[in-house]
Amino acid sequence: MIGSLWRRIIGRPLASDQAAKEQITSLEGLPALSLDALTSVAYGPEAIVIVLATAGATALHLIFPITVAIVGLLAILVFSYRQVIDAYPGGGGAYAVSKENLGAGASQLAAAALIVDYVLTVAVSIAAGVGALTSAFTPLHRHTVSLCLSILAVVTVMNLRGLGESARAFLAPTVAFIVGIGAVIVVGLIHPIARHTAQPGHSLVVTRGLQAVGVLLVLKAFAAGCSALTGVEAIANGVPLFREPRVKRAKQTELLLGVLLVAMLLGLATLAVRFHIGPRSGQTVLSQISGTALGRNWAYYSVSLVTTAVLALAANTSFGGLPVLTSLLARDNYLPHALAIRGDRLVYTYGIWVLAGLSGVLLVAVNGNTDTLIPLFAIGVFTGFTLSQTGLVVHWRRRRPPGWAGRAAINGLGAITTAGATVIFLLTKFTAGAWVVAIAVPSFIVLFHRVRGYYGEVAREVDLDTPPSGTGAPLDIPTPQRVAVIVPVNGISRITAETLAYARAISPDVVAVTVRFEDEDDPDLDPAWQQWNPGVPLITLRSKFHSVVHPIVSYVDGQCQVPNSPGTTDAPGTILALVLIPVVSPRKLRHRLLHNQLDLALAAALRYRPHVIVARIPFQLRD
Amino acid sequence: MIGSLWRRIIGRPLASDQAAKEQITSLEGLPALSLDALTSVAYGPEAIVIVLATAGATALHLIFPITVAIVGLLAILVFSYRQVIDAYPGGGGAYAVSKENLGAGASQLAAAALIVDYVLTVAVSIAAGVGALTSAFTPLHRHTVSLCLSILAVVTVMNLRGLGESARAFLAPTVAFIVGIGAVIVVGLIHPIARHTAQPGHSLVVTRGLQAVGVLLVLKAFAAGCSALTGVEAIANGVPLFREPRVKRAKQTELLLGVLLVAMLLGLATLAVRFHIGPRSGQTVLSQISGTALGRNWAYYSVSLVTTAVLALAANTSFGGLPVLTSLLARDNYLPHALAIRGDRLVYTYGIWVLAGLSGVLLVAVNGNTDTLIPLFAIGVFTGFTLSQTGLVVHWRRRRPPGWAGRAAINGLGAITTAGATVIFLLTKFTAGAWVVAIAVPSFIVLFHRVRGYYGEVAREVDLDTPPSGTGAPLDIPTPQRVAVIVPVNGISRITAETLAYARAISPDVVAVTVRFEDEDDPDLDPAWQQWNPGVPLITLRSKFHSVVHPIVSYVDGQCQVPNSPGTTDAPGTILALVLIPVVSPRKLRHRLLHNQLDLALAAALRYRPHVIVARIPFQLRD
Question: Which of these, B113, B517, B169, lies nearest to B329 by C-alpha position?
């Protein structure tokens, strides 16, 4: 019943040709690949404000110059990534680019950083979405964690159904979001409606600056604000999704994203200064800006709801990314192979579960609070940026197409600035949470190595050409000469009869065995067996010990010649023992308790013996 | 590793003839069978005091007349049970006696009441033992529940090892307990050492009586005090343990127990009145009495520690009782058959776990507080008393040995008084917790019926003589005519080679099958297979759906003629499909994650098909 309910939620299996093969236009590229980047305006400016507020209200105006610096970095990134699109029209994720140009070590670093990044994107987007919701509907604030987990659950189920990449369906909310933020900026710049109305919550700006406005503070604020740049690489990863001419369309989308992001960041920074926005309890910075610009009316609530919806969809885009990345890693033997298996809805089911699990744990750990997650964010992203830009420089140097020097210079500038930014993040945010990333990334790399090492050993061991240990000769597995079928029984019943019929079909060499304890009172099975006469001899194993398993295992061992050590070439005349265990199999799960599970213990004990095959023969009851 | 640690704790398997077959003397009967009864002086008087204290300090002296009434009831019970020993020298538990004399219904009631009683004995004894310990060492008070569970764990492990019934080892602490309580009474009556020293804790006696001293209060106090009588039936259950002449020795022990219990109860009641004992926070009544009599010195601490130890051993005696009772019930098909299986240490392992689990839950539920448990106690015990005395009356009437009328009169008196007491318990303690028992006992009886009903159905269904549904003819299971072996493969490796060797040994009719998804990029397996040429054809199943399981299941279904409905007589020429699934089996559990578990999904999908046998062939890796 639970199984069929789950099937209803997830949907029927899909045929391979039913896979969504949408081909998207430049505009559709925004909802499909850029939601993470676009929606980062919901938490980027906030991250800057929170850092600046530690130096008191007078420092808050610094948001504008810092945003200008971030926008400058964004411009470099947009042009760098337009070149990535040129160079890798097949999709140039940081993992693929650094694997090709920089070698295995760099690609593992990129993969680890990307995994951390995807998980954080999900957590930050959902937390920020819930933040937008609870800023508008303040009584919901104390349900923050439950709201976060509910949204995560919905997004996870959507992706298990395989609805993850529905660019067209996401276009409307994306446009609504851009229009909404645009309206906030335009109205705010021209004629703010509620400029002097008090916003809910109380101010969290320290009344006397605890910290001088120095270089370190500015760097910290810059580092925090760079969280607004996460996601600009996604378009370059998804080039194959575009309709032809794909490279051109993808580059258009990248430029469109850059322009929109620059406009929104600068607009919001201007308004933040104009409205003297500082952190407030229970209110996000975006909520304060739009509340001040529009007033807390239907327009404000619409913007808030759209923001929540689009942030949830932004989390959704990570679900498009991480399972694909982990499937590539699994194919390269860096992660468990199960991650490369597509489920019957044609999605990488295990990858989706891993992402949902990790981001769920993270959301619970930080209580759904964006501010705690921001310091962890951006480090992974910028590591990926640096690696793929560096990889591009190597790429241009190797290929040397016309104008390669200029192209290499652009990507080189991108690599240097993002590397510089990464160092700034690590230094300024280390104690605030970046240490988590500094531990997580190397741990993933160690994991990759150990997984790959294990698979290598397994491959050598199961390879037909590898000589088995100790002999030096290649393996030649002889066919056993005789099959002895052994049926453990504890009575005469239809179950026994059925199993014996199967046994006789397989081999003429069948025995039934039963175990009798020396101190048992029950009558011997032998006379009844003689009377039934099923054509199979019954052997009674007598035991001083109260264990059914051990006497049968010893008997089976006696039936087949066990070689001295596993893997050596067997002497000719090996006997294969096939143990068929009759099992009563009730239809209702709770009835299992009423049957002793000796069959499982026996099967487990026999499982790893060479030349022994164990099968449980279930006799299904009607009830 | 965990397995071998557990083996170290539990001990090596024992041979049947290594079962402890101590034969005990009359004196050894006390530690072996009477600890529950003897140690009930640790909580019986306390239960009376707590009820009386609700009517204020002036009511406390009523403990003496109430104890006299309880001692009277005890005398009747001791003589009744001496007659039970005469009548059932083979061991006369309430279940066996009522089954023989009163029929199935009464025996089920007795069994249900006894199960409740055993669980409560464990919980009350351990809680009272910890109460004695924390009264002496007051800082331990806040660790009450952990201490209770630790003692429960030690007792459980001891019993899983099969050390449960070591009468000789328990003799010393039992004698120490009797001597200690004796010393408290003698010193307290003659020359109490610390009579006027304040005891720790604060008084819990209400300063103004909330309740008039009426018949109801006295009845309530009597009912509470009857918890001191639990366990007097145990000697009659254990007659076979005694050395010959067993009946005589058992009767001596019963009498000895009666005399000791009467002396201790009357002595403690006298001291309680003399010392004006009332309930105190963190102090048991016994602790106050012995502290006042002896002073809180080494002698007091010794008595407390011995009391704790002996109460833990009293809990232990339930572990000797319940598993035997549930094994009898399992043999009568009233409980899961697993409860009748003896483990390799010759004990009824599952029964021990059931008792440990239920009493652990109970201890946690009441926070290790004896006072909460006492109202639940005694109802089960006295129901058992009533049923076995009534059974004895029937027994004497049927057999009519010389002097049967007198004997029947004694047991009749026992039956009437205990039945009366049971009614008093139910009425006076119903809201205080007895309702739990009033629900638990009928629930157990319903459980017995449903389990028995299920086993009855199964037996009819698997019986060889029962005609299978629909046909009317007795079952004649034909031997399938041909065995088709199917080996699902996903590559060429030593694992495949080994499985194919086994397959060829079983039948000449072997095929390997592999599944290929239409959108897969990997190269076809066919050419490599042709080159390897293992002598077995490879069939490639092409699938539009991303599931390995379904194509293989369909293929297997196509190979064997499936009858229209399970259980009908098969057409001649049935084919038995034997599916051998090669499996990589890593030695370390954590490495399992690195292998996809498709084999399990496939085995599960094929398991319940008629004429299909599934076996997984593990290839064990070295590391």
Answer: B113
